[in-house]
Amino acid sequence: MRFTGINHLAMATGDMDRTIRYWRDLLGLRMVAGLGHPGYRHYFFEITKRDMIAFFEWPGVLPGPDKDHGAPVRGPFTFDHVSFGVEGPDDLWDLRDRLDAAGFWVSEVVDHGFIHSLYSFDPNNIPVEFSAPVPGVDLSENPVMADSRPTLYAREGPEPQPDVWPCPVRSTPVSERRVYPGEGLRLVGQEPRDEDGEPHHV
C-alpha cells in the first residue's frame, strides 16, 4: 500500500464567497471543482496536482473559536492547524506581504530548524501555517527524535512495526468490490443514481 499525499482536507465555511476570495484570489490556489444544491456546497482548491483543500458550505456555520497554533487545550478536540509547504523563503515573504496587505493577521517568520514558518488565519478562523524547507535538513532521510521522554511506542523507531495489528483474514474478491454513487459524479457529467435507477443524493 502506497500513499500519494493528502487528496484533500475537508473544512467547513458559512461563507463560500469569502473563502474563494482568500484561497483562490489571495493565495492563488485554483478552484478545480464545485458541487452543490440548495443547503449544500462542496468546493475544491488545488494545492498541488495531487493535493487539495476543500470546503463544505452549510447554512449557519460560524467561524471557529480563537485558538492559536499549537496552544494547549483541554476537552474534546481534534484539529489544531494545517501547514502548507512552499518552495523557499521568498515564498514566505511574498505570502507575508500579501496577507498583511489584505488585512489578515500574520506572524513573523519562525525558524523551526527543519522548516521556516509563517502563521495566519483564514476567513473561517482556520489556523494556517506556511512552511519552507531549510536546505540540508531532510527528516525523511534522517528522522530525529528530540523528545526528552518519548512514549513507549515512539521508542520503537520511525519505521512501521510488523505484527502490531491483525492481518485481514480474507481479501475482498473482485466480484464483491462495489463502488457506490456519490455527488462527485456530477463533476464528470453523470447523475448519481441508486441501484433502482432513482436519483441519488449523498
What does this structure look like?
The longest helix has 13 residues, at 89-101. 12% of the residues are buried. The strands form two sheets. Strands 1-4-3-2 form a four-stranded mixed β-sheet, covered by helices on one side. The protein contains two helices and eight strands. Among the domains are: 1-60, 2,3-Dihydroxybiphenyl 1,2-Dioxygenase, domain 1 (Roll); 79-138, 2,3-Dihydroxybiphenyl 1,2-Dioxygenase, domain 1 (Roll). The two termini are 28 Å apart. The protein is an alpha/beta fold.
Named at the architecture level, the CATH assignment of the domain at 1-60 is: Roll
Let me know the number of strands: 8
Spell out the CATH superfamily of the domain at 1-60.
2,3-Dihydroxybiphenyl 1,2-Dioxygenase, domain 1
Top CATH class of the domain at 1-60: Alpha Beta
Total helical segments: 2
Write down the secondary-structure element order: EHEEEEHEEE
Strand order of the largest sheet: 1-4-3-2
What would you report as the Rg, rounded to the nearest angstrom?
21 Å
CATH topology assignment of the domain at 1-60: 2,3-Dihydroxybiphenyl 1,2-Dioxygenase, domain 1
Q: Calculate the mean pLDDT score and round it.
A: 94
Low-pLDDT runs: none
